[in-house]
């Protein structure tokens, strides 16, 4: 009986077009946002509404940057297990925060909060990625896998230096630092959001205009080149856009290593197509649904609103290991 119901449900899902699936997920996202903003408000309505609206803005930025960035990264690497974090962005962010606290003390984290710090961190990470890409792609042995390998080596090196310096910190500075090394949705400064939305709109417009070229990149280097796509230029441009998205997300809401990976996997299943015109919006919507719905449940059911990103990272890490073991290779 259960098998019959499951087969019938799968058959109905197959009959849904990608557009209809986007509409269904969009309705679910709208319901989740309404529940998150309007239900279980205690105390002053506008105070709570403003705080939740700021969190919703941070979640929207994280969903777009991590979800769409990971989908594009999977496309250009032709691999659905890798994540942009493998390029060492999270490790570089942790190293910058650790070195800052090690030199100036933990109090400097609060004293230097502001747009200049956010922009500086983002620019440094994008410069790091751009120099790495140009060096590796312009070389005689230019290779995407070499690029990934170098990213892993840099990430491990940054992690090692960060851990060493963290062991030398006093407990108070370490506590202050540790709050910056996990994803944080609840304490994002709302003055950052206009700039963040602007960056997302510009990058999103570029990606949307090149959605058909992204479809062509899925076919591989030779086929894409044969149908008129300048493969090397498109790959470099996409890597730089991914660097901008992931670097900005990391500087704004903190490291989220496996969140984009989980969202991208869900988007491939839910979209029912490989076309980026549907997969990218689906990744954004599912990412937003995951964060908003998860935050609502954690806050009002389990009274543990600060653990959402920890649970997502934990579940994402397990899913990553399961897929890696089933596939047997990257």
Task: Please give a structural write-up.
- The protein has 330 residues and is mainly alpha-helical.
- 78% of the residues lie in helices and 0% in strands.
- It has 15 helices and no strands.
- α2 (18-38) runs antiparallel to α3 (45-77), α6 packs antiparallel against α12 and α9 packs antiparallel against α12 (231-253).
- The chain is globular, with a radius of gyration of 20 Å.
- The two termini are 38 Å apart.
Fraction of helical residues: over 70%
What is the residue-averaged pLDDT? 81
Low-pLDDT windows of residues: none
The geometry reads as globular
How does the helix and strand content classify structurally? mainly alpha
Biggest beta sheet summary: none
Q: Name the beta content range.
A: under 5%
Task: List SSEs in N-to-C order.
Answer: HHHHHHHHHHHHHHH
Q: Tally the helices.
A: 15
The total of beta strands comes to 0
Query: Taking Cα atoms only, what radius of gyration do you get, to the nearest Å?
Result: 20 Å
Span from first to last CA?
A: 38 Å
